[in-house]
Amino acid sequence: MDSIYENSSFILSTIASDEKPSQCNEREREVTSPKWIKVLLIVLGFSLVFALGGLCSLNNQHIMISKQLSAQEINGTSEETVSLMSCNHSVDGWIACRGKLYLFSSDKLNWSSSRDVCVSKGADLVTITNQTEQDFLVSKIKETHWTGLNDLETEGHWVWVNNQTLTETGVQFWFSEGQREPDNWKNQDPSGENCASLGDENGNFQSWFDASCKKQKKFICEKKY
Ligand SMILES: [Ca+2]
Ligand SMILES: [Ca+2]
Question: 209: CA distance to ligand 2 center in Å?
Answer without folding.
Answer: 5
